[in-house]
Amino acid sequence: MNVKLWVWTIVFILIGGGIMFYGMSYNPLAWAQGFVSFTEPNDEPIPWGLLVIGYIFFGVIGTGVSTYNSLYELFNKNHKERNPFDKIKLRNEWLALAVLIPGWIMVFASTYKPAEALFIYLSFRSTSRIAWNGVLYALVGIGIIAEILALIGEKIKEEGKRGILDRFLAWLSSKTTFEIPGMLKLVVDIDALIVGYAILAELILDANLGSVFGYLSTWVYEFGPFMSILLVVASFYAGIAMISFITPLYSWLRRPTAITPTPAKPIATHISGSGSIDPEEDNTVFKVLARDGLLATIGIGFLVLWWVWLTATNQETLPWAELLINGSWSLVFWIGLVLIGIIIPIILYSIAYKKESKGWLFASSIFVLLGWFVLITLADVIPQAISWYYSVSPVSPPGSTWAYELRSNFNGVSQYTQLPFAISQYDLVWFAGSVLFLLGVYTLGVLLLPLEEEEKPKHWFFK
């Protein structure tokens, strides 16, 4: 038993849960009644604040980790030796699920009446992209959990267990034959179907998250498809960075496994690495992550350039471009996103790829995660940062509820005003509590589930 890891897990779950309970501490019963007395989450000048940024930040990381990991698994299904993540794929999927948890928490905490968020499902509106987010988050969670169980089922199948649950889990990782005698014989790979379903649900969720911002009434219509593309690419950008952060960290923190050397192999292969990977395979994993991370970062750089070009060359969105290029958000854009999130990671990923170094990979992942937080902050705040004053909006779709005041250049008054961005105490409490809770949940899975290659399930799906 790893006592230190158990202490870490319990402490962070209790601290994270305690901080979130503090968020409703003034009147916990008000949450059950559909009211919040601590502070209203949507009463700031820019209503979509840190909690919305938070659930996009963690949600896209979670889908990115799973999609990236699952694509390697799907395309190397019949040749597992070609999959560089084969020995850590189960741990990667658990990481994806753990990262989604703070996203789910912030989705409900960011609603005006958190306890009534269940009506997203009970009174579903098919025309609401935010309502679809609630459904897609659930479908993604189901897909990742099913994929985790199927990967554990592979180990159960090797063990040859015969319990009802054991047989079901083994079936999830098997091939099933459907046959109509004399007419049709169809072989279905259940595990491949699960992985394919998970990838599809994750990509649709990322695209839908982008459309929530892309079709705000403050943007022109061309931003709808652009923002969807941005968040799909960002899922790989952020997901690869999270794996690149956790894998070297796990490698450094994991205790070495004692191996008795033999004449054929005088040097131990099981060292303090990421799971039970030998040093040579470890370097392969780091090199693949560095290569793919570099490509994803270049892709994000191109899309950011496209974003600036779209806004700066359209008279209706020029004020937002000015905010990014030389306005009040320019330092955040140029330093936080362009320098920290794109230029520095491109350099560090290149060095990590050349040297096959987990140290350089770890450093690059930190900069990417910071850059991803800045990117989603800008994507969330910038379209809300300007309030237009038109009797008839030039950028609002028919039937929009966006409010406008009659102003024009004829009376010498600016046609728009910039709104301030503020982070409320409510936002900070729930964001901090959710992040700490995430750390405890991830290590709880490390303690209870057979995430390593050499670990086998002993009872149900527990190791």
Question: What would you say this structure looks like, in words?
Answer:
The chain is mainly alpha-helical and 463 residues long. It has three domains: 237 residues, no CATH class; 118 residues, no CATH class; 33 residues, no CATH class. The chain is built from 14 helices and four strands. The strands form two sheets. A two-stranded antiparallel ribbon has the order 1-2. A hairpin with a 3-residue loop joins strand 1 and strand 2. The longest helix is centred in the middle third of the chain and has 34 residues. It starts with a helix and ends in a 15-residue tail after the last helix. It is a multi-pass membrane protein. It is found in: Cell membrane.
Shape: globular
Structural class: mainly alpha
Strand content: under 5%
Sketch the major β-sheet. 2 strands, antiparallel
Low-confidence stretches: 257-276, 390-394, 401-411
- Helices and strands, in order, run as HHHHHHHEEHHHHHHEEH
Count of helical stretches: 14
Instruction: Give the strand line-up of the largest sheet.
Output: 1-2
Chain-averaged pLDDT: 80
Percent range of helical residues? 55-70%
- The N- and C-terminal alpha carbons lie at a distance of 12 Å
The overall strand count is: 4
Rg over CA atoms, rounded to whole Å, is 24 Å
How many domain modules? 3
